[in-house]
């Protein structure tokens, strides 16, 4: 006969066993749901399995709690990660022409997702021409192209903007080995990369560009829109020619061939007085933060995405190829079924002839795991990809308070209106001054709401850099305007091989405008 005490223990064990089976079944379903959500492109990450806390349950008078819990990252470490690449610059009050500058300053930041960050950013003041330049460059198939473009494009724009007389003076100084006045003043973070093994090649190509401008005496009707257009196309052409002339050192990460076969999108802004020009290739965006007379914020998008979601862009691509290719030029919303952006630098595998690509693939300079050594499917009438930017001009108004430039890593996580709202409230502090109506709240709910508001205000004070503040919201938002520290901690704690499933590299530049001067 079994003692009564053993029967009591047996009942407890059976109850615990049933609980484990239920939990195991729930976890299996959650994993399946998480897997399914990753198959589609969504702005929300898959179901979070990290740190699921089960409530305590009582079985026959005893409490049992699942011990699968994850310690949250401390705020100091979160801030260290978010602020590692942040950069801020305050612009001098005068622009050198005895007039007040239209830019107060800018904030920028980069948060990598890929093991090797493929995004780049640039900012510079034009010293021999006018205005300031800002750029966001989203690389793919490696970072080589984004790196090269981030270093070179602004010089090409400066050359395109300079009068022929100034170019002649520069050429004379170079020819006679005299010091040359710099064209640009760069504003860089110490972590921003610089390729050191291609400087001579880059300079020679740039010099050829200004020599051609001198020979052609291209000085009439020289406007910013034309200069941006010409600079983009000329740089992409030089990237192509450099790779065809010399494949380069196979041990270098920045060989002309690696630059040419990788690719990047580009969003570049030129600001001179109240004239703002945006030159865009691909799916990075420039969005103005506009404050209306009643104090509310609205988003005004200046750039257009160049992908299958843009009907005009899709029609442009289809019209440039024979009707027989209509079903293959864009497949599954991708160029030749492979590439999402329809415009970009590099990516010569979508631009060169089939004969040229086959000749390149026969070389030993590229390892088999770097690039697929075969032509894209249905590759009949290249080029399929162009580097001609869409240039938009906008006259700045007093209500234009800031401009946000960002790679698609941000826009996949946040709507443009939310982005502007977050930055606007961060800059004005209005968010913490809004009255809270207690009509629909209990006293306890009101207390919790005020506690949340206090914690959010503390988090906001952590960020003097607007780009950092935006990244914090993009990763940690609970969907109701609040940064959830637990969610932020989990997003920053993901293993490297999982991070890319949740988000892309994020690069942000926030330009603060001097609306009092407009």
TrEMBL record:
Q: Which domain of life is it from?
A: Eukaryota
Gene Ontology CC terms: mitochondrion
Cited SMART domains: PP2Cc
This entry's Enzyme Commission designation comes to: 3.1.3.43
UniProt cofactor(s): Mg(2+)
* Reactions that this protein is recorded to catalyse: O-phospho-L-seryl-[pyruvate dehydrogenase E1 alpha subunit] + H2O = L-seryl-[pyruvate dehydrogenase E1 alpha subunit] + phosphate
Q: Which UniProt keywords apply?
A: Hydrolase, Magnesium, Manganese, Metal-binding, Mitochondrion, Protein phosphatase, Transit peptide
**Where in or outside the cell?**
Mitochondrion
Q: What class of enzyme is it?
A: hydrolase
Q: What is this protein called?
A: [Pyruvate dehydrogenase [acetyl-transferring]]-phosphatase 2, mitochondrial
> What organism is recorded for this protein?
Hucho hucho (huchen)
């Amino acid at each position: 006969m079994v003692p009564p005490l053993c029967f009591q223990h047996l009942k407890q064990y059976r109850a615990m066993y049933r609980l484990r089976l239920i939990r195991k079944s729930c976890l299996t379903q959650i994993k399946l749901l998480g897997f399914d959500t990753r198959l589609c492109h969504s702005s929300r990450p898959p179901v979070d399995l990290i740190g699921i806390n089960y409530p305590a349950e009582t079985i026959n008078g005893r409490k049992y709690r699942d011990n699968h819990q994850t310690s949250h990252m401390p705020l100091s470490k979160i801030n260290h990660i978010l602020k590692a690449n942040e950069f801020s610059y305050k612009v001098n009050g005068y622009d050198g022409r005895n007039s007040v500058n239209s830019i107060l300053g800018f904030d920028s930041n980069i948060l990598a997702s890929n093991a090797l960050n493929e995004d780049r950013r640039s900012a510079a003041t034009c010293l021999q021409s006018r205005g300031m330049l800002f750029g966001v460059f989203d690389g793919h198939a490696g970072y080589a192209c984004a790196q090269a473009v981030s270093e070179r494009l602004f010089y090409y724009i400066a050359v395109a903007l300079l009068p022929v007389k100034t170019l002649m003076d520069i050429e004379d100084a170079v020819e006679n080995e005299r010091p040359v006045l710099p064209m640009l003043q760069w504003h860089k973070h110490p972590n921003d990369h610089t390729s050191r093994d291609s400087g001579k090649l880059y300079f020679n190509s740039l010099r050829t560009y200004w020599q051609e401008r001198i020979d052609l005496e291209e000085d009439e009707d020289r406007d910013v829109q034309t200069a941006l257009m010409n600079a983009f196309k000329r740089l992409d052409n030089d990237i192509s020619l450099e790779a065809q002339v010399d494949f380069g050192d196979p041990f270098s990460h920045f060989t002309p061939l690696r630059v040419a076969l990788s690719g990047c999108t580009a969003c570049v802004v030129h600001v001179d007085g109240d004239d703002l020009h945006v030159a865009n290739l691909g799916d990075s965006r420039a969005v103005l933060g506009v404050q209306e007379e009643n104090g509310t914020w609205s988003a005004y998008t200046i750039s257009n995405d160049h992908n299958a979601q843009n009907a005009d862009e899709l029609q442009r691509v289809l019209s440039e190829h024979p009707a027989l290719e209509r079903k293959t030029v864009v497949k599954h919303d991708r160029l030749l079924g492979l590439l999402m952006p329809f415009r970009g630098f590099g990516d010569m595998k979508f631009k060169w002839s089939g004969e040229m690509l086959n000749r390149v693939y026969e070389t030993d300079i590229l390892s088999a795991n770097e690039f697929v050594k075969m032509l894209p499917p249905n590759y009949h009438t290249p080029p399929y990809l162009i580097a001609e930017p869409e240039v938009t001009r906008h006259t700045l108004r007093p209500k234009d308070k800031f401009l946000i430039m960002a790679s698609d890593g941000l826009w996949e996580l946040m709507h443009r209106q939310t982005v502007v709202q977050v930055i606007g409230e961060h800059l004005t502090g209005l968010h913490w001054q809004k009255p809270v109506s207690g009509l629909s709240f209990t006293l306890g709910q009101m207390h919790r709401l005020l506690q949340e508001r206090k914690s959010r205000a503390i988090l906001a004070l952590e960020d003097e850099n607007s780009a950092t503040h935006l990244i914090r919201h993009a990763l940690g938002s609970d969907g109701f305007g609040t940064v959830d520290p637990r969610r932020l901690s989990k997003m920053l704690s993901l293993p490297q091989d999982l991070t890319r499933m949740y988000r892309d590299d994020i690069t942000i530049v926030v330009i603060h405008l001097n609306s009092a001067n407009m």
